[in-house]
Design brief:
Elements (H helix, E strand, L loop, with lengths): L2 E5 L3 H10 L6 E2 L2 E2 L4 H6 L3 H14 L14 H10 L8 E5 L7 H7 L4 E6 L2 H14 L4 E5 L11 E5 L6 H8 L3 E11 L3 H7 L1 H6 L2 E9 L8 E8 L1
Parallel strand pairs: 1-9, 4-5, 4-7, 5-6, 7-8
Antiparallel strand pairs: 2-3, 8-10, 9-10
Helix pairs in contact: 3-5, 4-5
Length: 234
Amino acid sequence: MVRAQTVTRFSAVADAAAESSSVDVVMTGAVEAEPAVAAEMFGDRIELARQFTAALATHGEERGLIGPLELPRLWTRHILNSAIAAPLFSGSVADIGSGAGLPGIVLAIARPDAQFTLVEPMERRVTWLNEQVTALGMSNVEVLRARAEEVPATGGFDVVTARAVSALRTLIPLTAPLVRDGGELTLLKGMNVSNEIDAAQKQIKKFRLSDVRVEVLGEGVLTETTRVLRARVR
C-alpha cells in the first residue's frame, strides 16, 4: 500500500516562508524574478543557480528546452521545484532524460557532494548540458548521450531520478534496472502520481520495488509543491 506523507525540508527556509505567509514572486518583464527563498535554499551555491537560470531564461525557448509560457514561472515551477528535493540525493545519481538540466543540473548545484550522470539522447540537448557543465565549472557532473536502456548498468547508481519524462508504467522499466541493489528510485512527478502508481502495479512487482511512497515537498516554502515517488529497488 502506498503511503503519502508530507516532508518538511530546509526548515530554516520554511520558517522564513511562514513568517511572510507566502513566497513573494516579483515579475520583471516576461521572466520571473528570483524569489527571496532561492538564496536560502541554495546557500553559497546561489550564484551558480542564478547563472544557470539566466542561461535558461535567455536561450531555453530558442533552443527548444522550455516553452514561452514557462518564463514567468521559471524559478518557482522549475528551479526551486527541483532544488527542494536535493536532500533526498547522495552518492552516485543518474538523471534520465535530463533535457534542459531539470532536475539534474539544479540538483548538482545544490548537492556538490554527490556525483551526477545526466542521461539524454538528443544531441542538441546534450550540447546544451555540456555547455552548462563547462560554464558552471561543475566537476560533479558527467553528461552521457544515450537512451536509458543503453546506459551500462554495471554496479548501478545509488539513486536514479527523472522529471516529466513519462508515466510510471513506462518509466519504471527504464529506470529501475539502473539502480544498484538496495538503491532508490526518486522520481519527480505531477499531481496524478497516485493514479500512475495504481496503473503501474505490474511493473512495481516485476522490478521488485518496495517501500513505494509519495512524498510532498515544499509545503509552506514553495507556491507549487513537489511530489516525489520514492521506492527501494530489490
